[in-house]
Amino acid sequence: MAGCSRRTSRRRSSTAAATTRGFHAATFQWKGAGVIATGTLSGVTNAGVHREPFFRECQRCDEHGVMEGRLCAQIRRAPRELVGCNIIGVYLLRFDANPKGGQGDVQGTFEGVIVSPCG
To answer: Which of 8, 24, 28, 82 matches a 20 to 30 Å C-alpha distance to 2?
Structure first.
């Protein structure tokens, strides 16, 4: 959804510091080019699950400044054939971690699918 803006509200986190493992969750709204989607995201903060023996070594077990999780949304406004479709995806985000909490830029990757109802 390139060129879209994102507004996140009702953020929740089980940890105050950005250097310890925790849980994050939020509701959000994406807007762009005649499309609006609303949904939720949730995941684990500061966990490195991309590592050996199952993956190439690229993260530590306690990787700081990482948020990874699942995103689910429904398309509310769009061309008719997309209204009511669901967006299901995963994300991996990197942020500047310090003992006072996450600060600075957030960068990352989102991958997902649009699922249309049968019928």
So the answer is: 24
